[in-house]
Amino acid sequence: MNRGMKRIGEAALAHGGGNALVVSSGLSIVHFLIAIDLTLNSKGMDNAAVTKLRYKNWAFSIIGRVESLKYYERGKAKMSN
Known about the structure:
By secondary structure, the protein is α+β, with helices and mostly antiparallel strands. The protein contains 3 helices and 2 strands, in the order ααββα.
């Protein structure tokens, strides 16, 4: 997964940078995140959870909260209005 993620990061940089959305199984994402941060303690990821990463100098770093449900909660609130 690391190789694929780096290819995505390099492709984004080749097109001027910006955001890239990567969707995968929660288990794969958790293993990738643990490879980035060995102190991360996660048993699994909820559906619709989001973790933002930064790709810089051929390395990833985690930005903000891991496994955030902020976007899910925001959409759920809009649907109930």
